[in-house]
Amino acid sequence: MCRQAGEGVSQRRLADDLTLTSSGITRLVDRMEEAGLVSRVPAPADRRSVLVEPTDQGRTAFVLAAGVHAQVVEQYFVGPLSQAEYTRLTSALGQIDKALDDTVH
Predict the structure, then answer these.
(1) Residues 65 and 49 placed together within one structural domain of the fold
(2) What pLDDT shows up at residue 47?
(3) Are residues 101 and 70 in the same domain?
(4) Are residues 41 and 63 in the same domain?
(5) pTM over 0.90
(6) Average pLDDT of the residues in 19-39
(7) Among 8, 12, 19, 95, which residue's beta carbon has the most beta carbons within 10 A?
(8) Cα(29)–Cα(25) distance, rounded to whole angstroms?
């Protein structure tokens, strides 16, 4: 799921996206907030709700983690494949992504 820079997300939406329970996402966001990675802010459209937004430190941590993730994917999932195997893998993943997208929308 893509979000715009500076766009917050509700804990309910995070829980759904990450397949976590409400209590599980609350504990996760609590820990991330304590670590300075996210902050909770009032939702502009609904005063009863709060949104979770990344902090500058959280954005930096995400970029670093994404780089490590990319290296691991390259080393263990892309590097060992021939070009033909890589083409089959990406095609299959594309089909899975489309099927998941079709079930969500």
Answers:
(1) no
(2) 81
(3) yes
(4) no
(5) no
(6) 94
(7) 8
(8) 6
Higher pLDDT pick, 59 / 49: 59
Question: What single letter denotes the amino acid at residue 10?
Answer: S
Q: Of 27, 54, 81, which one is at a domain's C-terminal end? A: 54
**Domain encompassing residue 104:** 56-105
Whole-angstrom distance, CA of residue 6 vs CA of residue 27: 22
Contacts of 105 (CB under 8 A, 6+ apart): none
- Residue 51 has a CB neighbour count (10 Å cut-off) of 20
The predicted model gives 21-31 an average pLDDT of 94
Which residues contact residue 58 at a Cβ distance below 8 angstroms, ignoring those fewer than 6 apart?
32, 36, 37, 38
> Which of 39, 54, 69 is the last residue before a domain boundary?
54
Residue 27 tokens, joined:
């504990």
Tens of pLDDT, residues 65-101: 999 999 999 999 999 999 999 999 999 999 999 998 8
